[in-house]
């Protein structure tokens, strides 16, 4: 079986599993991210003025917005991703909870073009599956792998995979272009990935 076939099979299985987790956990899971992430924001390198990029949850992705709201209250500068080039890395624009959004590709929402672009220092990354080594399986577009490669080439960024605890698998199939995460955040725990 090829790497792409392995990923395709795992995506199919994990989408179904994430749907069940979303129906079962729902809003409580988003609160769990806040309970586990907010007290350890200093461990993640988040303080006043830190540029923190999240995501607008699509379909059954776990909702990071409650945590982003609390980080914004604590003085972090929050941003959301924008697909500027379908074959390039994501760009990020400042976003606050009261700011308007516009529809983007693949059922995403992002800040208006008038919102300033920023470079995140901390990046919360949605996923379909993850493993203890910090590998993640995304939707298959490669956006976050390209983005992490570009951000890491230009300096330090902390990448935090965000998902339901049940999305952890023994091994995520990965190749040389699959970027590893630094931390894993679920509704139950925040865990540093060992080097």
SSE arrangement:
Elements: H1 3-25, H2 27-37, E1 51-53, H3 65-73, E2 77-82, E3 91-94, E4 101-103, E5 109-111, E6 117-118, E7 122-126, E8 129-130, E9 136-137, H4 143-153, E10 158-162, E11 183-185, E12 190-192
Helix pairs in contact: 2-3
Text of the CATH class: Alpha Beta
> Which strand-content bin applies to the residues?
15-25%
Counting copies of identical and different chains, the oligomeric state is: single chain
Mean of all residue-level pLDDT scores:
94
Report the sheet with the most strands, covering strand number, pairing sense and barrel closure.
8 strands, mixed
What are the secondary-structure elements, in order, as H or E? HHEHEEEEEEEEHEEE
Q: Tell me the count of domains.
A: 1
**What is the rounded distance between the termini?**
28 Å
- Annotation field: number of helices: 4
Tell me, briefly, the overall form.
globular
Total strands: the figure is: 12
**Strand line-up across the major sheet:** 6-3-2-1-7-10-11-12
CATH homologous superfamily title: NagB/RpiA/CoA transferase-like
- Kindly state the percentage of residues in helix: 25-40%
CATH architecture, please? 3-Layer(aba) Sandwich
Low-confidence stretches: none
Rg over C-alpha atoms, rounded to the nearest angstrom: 16 Å
> Pairing-aware structural class of the strands and helices?
alpha/beta
CATH topology: Rossmann fold
């Amino acid at each position: 079986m090829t790497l792409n076939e392995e990923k395709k099979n795992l995506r199919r299985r994990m989408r179904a599993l994430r749907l069940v987790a979303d129906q079962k956990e729902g809003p409580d899971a988003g609160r769990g991210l806040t309970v586990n992430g907010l007290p350890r924001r200093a461990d993640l390198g988040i303080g006043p003025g830190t540029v923190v990029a999240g995501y607008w949850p699509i379909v059954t992705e776990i909702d990071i917005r409650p945590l982003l709201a609390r980080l914004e209250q604590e003085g972090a500068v929050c941003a959301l991703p924008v697909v500027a080039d379908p074959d390039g890395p994501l760009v990020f624009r400042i976003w606050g909870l009261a700011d308007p959004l516009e529809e983007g590709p693949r059922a995403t929402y992002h800040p208006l073009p008038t919102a300033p672009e920023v470079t995140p220092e901390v990046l919360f990354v949605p996923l379909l599956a993850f493993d203890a080594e910090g590998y993640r399986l995304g939707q298959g577009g490669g956006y976050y792998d390209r983005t992490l490669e570009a951000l890491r080439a230009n300096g330090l960024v902390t990448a935090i995979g965000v998902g339901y605890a049940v999305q952890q698998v023994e091994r995520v199939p990965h190749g040389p272009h699959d970027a590893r995460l630094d931390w894993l955040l679920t509704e139950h725990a925040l865990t540093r990935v060992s080097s």
